[in-house]
Amino acid sequence: MFTVFEIGPWVIEADAEETRKQYEKSWPDPCDCGSCRNFSEAVNLLPAEKTRLFTQFGIRPAVCHDLGEHGKENGLHHYAGSYPIVGRLREGWPNFHIERAGDIRFSFSLPSTTFFIPKGFPDPIIHLDFSLLLPWVLEEDAD
Length: 143
Prior knowledge:
single chain
């Protein structure tokens, strides 16, 4: 069931329940590097109020396949990525606009490729693009 979300300049119609079902599936992990494993562990340690941006759409924050680490800032690791959501952007959405939810920068976009979208993820699809800083929490040293 689609729900309308108004966030910043975007009006989003999203099916959070269907998105949640997709994130409950076992997807093959495209990367097992230390940075990606650290992201999964560190984002799981964030309090619920910090991950609400993601979970309201049915996203499991630790499951991100379109992810990259972009260096360090103030001793924290800078991550950026995109999560697929079952949903659509209503007309009039900005081509490029960034909002903030606390220290998470985010925007919504249409997918430019299907490479990082798991097979069988249902249409319509939009992306929640994000950027955030996380500590290194793994016992192993950062690469």
